[in-house]
Design brief:
This protein has about 350 residues and is an alpha+beta fold. Helices cover about 35% and strands about 20% of the residues. The protein has helices at about 15-20, 45-65, 80-85, 100-105, 105-115, 125-130, 130-140, 160-165, 190-200, 255-270, 305-310, 315-330, and strands at about 5-10, 70-75, 90-95, 150, 170-175, 185, 205-210, 215-220, 225-230, 245, 275-285, 290-295. The strands form 3 sheets. The chain has a 5-stranded antiparallel sheet, with helices on both faces.
């Protein structure tokens, strides 16, 4: 494998609250120079939480790339990203972007427009998967089981009949969100208004879905290949850790294979075969499996679910990053370093 110069894209949102500002002046963004920002306190609200997860992933990815013999160059995924790409000679990019920054597809669209190869699915597939309404519509079209849900706009509130049909308890979520931010479990109609106001801090559109009881299994899929899965004893926190988990899940081999097949089918239905995906499935006591979430941009730091599941399956973190790089190797031209790219207006 020939050495590459790889850009590591990280979000700058909230970085002043979680560490040194990764602006254009000075050396590399906090955490990408080999230091670990995991001990920094979380401050500054939801944007700071997402920035912390990005910085942890970016720092670990950059160190792994260097250990593999590549050159890692951090690039801030801010409003000046196009200029940053022009000023930084890279063969391809890895995205340490989670939450809205990586999920809505704008960064992937810019990279495609600039002819910069990157690891992961195309922008349209990422944006579709990050949208809980559209992704579930597509999954249901492919006969894949999804939770019963209601969509709410910024000024909407569900009528009593709709809530009665949905059933209690239920869960309110931002339509486009990650890390559990803005998610609340409700057991009575009186809790709806407060939960909606909290979720509206994350997105101006929401999802109310029927709460499901059972074993949560998170499946890690690389391309179309299942690397492994974990039973979540406690969910990962907003800070990005993997929570308490058991690898492999305490399920029969036949049932686990069925869950893995469901995860592969979900990835194919959403067009995510080019990337690393995490599919969350609820296994109920009645032996029904329901696709809860499909995360197209999962956290990639060493302590996250993806890395821990891969490690349990025999993949060291550097091996996992090497697999990601291998998938974009053929898309990188031999003479790509230093080539001139037009500046987009």
């Amino acid at each position: 494998m020939r050495p590459l110069t790889l850009g590591v894209l990280v979000s700058t949102a909230g970085c002043r609250e979680v560490g040194r500002d990764p602006g254009r002046e000075g050396p590399e963004p906090h955490g990408l120079d080999g230091s670990r920002p995991t001990d920094q306190p979380l401050r500054g609200g939801d944007r700071a939480v997402e920035a912390m997860v990005d910085l942890r992933s970016g720092g670990d990815l950059a160190q792994a790339l260097r250990d593999l013999g590549h050159v890692a160059r951090p690039i801030a995924a801010d409003d000046d990203l196009d200029i940053g790409l022009r000023q930084t000679d890279v063969d391809a990019c890895l995205l340490a972007l989670h939450g809205r920054c990586g999920g809505i597809g704008e960064v992937q669209s810019l990279l495609t427009l600039r002819n910069v190869p990157f690891a992961g699915p195309p922008a349209t597939a990422v944006a579709l998967s990050f949208d809980k309404i559209r992704s579930r519509q597509l999954l249901a079209y492919h006969n894949l089981p999804v939770p019963a849900a209601l969509a709410l706009g910024a000024n909407g509130r569900p009528n009593d009949r709709a809530l009665e049909l949905l059933g209690w308890p239920c869960v309110v979520k931002p339509r486009r969100g990650a890390h559990g931010l803005g998610v609340s479990r409700l057991v009575a109609v009186g809790q709806v208004r407060e939960a909606i106001e909290r979720a509206l801090d994350i997105d101006d559109e929401l999802v109310l879905e029927r709460a499901l009881d059972g074993i949560e299994v998170q499946v890690v899929v690389l391309g179309e290949r299942v690397l492994g899965s974990a039973e979540m004893v406690t969910r990962p926190t907003a800070a990005g850790d993997g929570g308490d988990m058991i690898c492999p899940p305490r399920l029969s081999r036949g049932r686990l294979e069925g869950i893995h097949a469901l995860a592969r089918a979900s990835v194919a239905a959403l067009g995510l075969q080019e990337g690393l995906t995490r599919v969350d499935v609820i296994a109920t006591a009645r032996h029904n499996e329901i696709v809860l979430e499909v995360e197209p941009v999962p956290a990639l730091h060493r302590d996250g679910v993806v890395a821990r599941v891969a490690r349990a399956a025999g993949f060291a973190y550097e091996d996992l990053v090497g697999e990601i790089v291998d998938r974009i190797m053929l898309r990188v031209p031999e003479a790509s370093v230093g080539r001139e790219r037009p500046l987009l207006q």
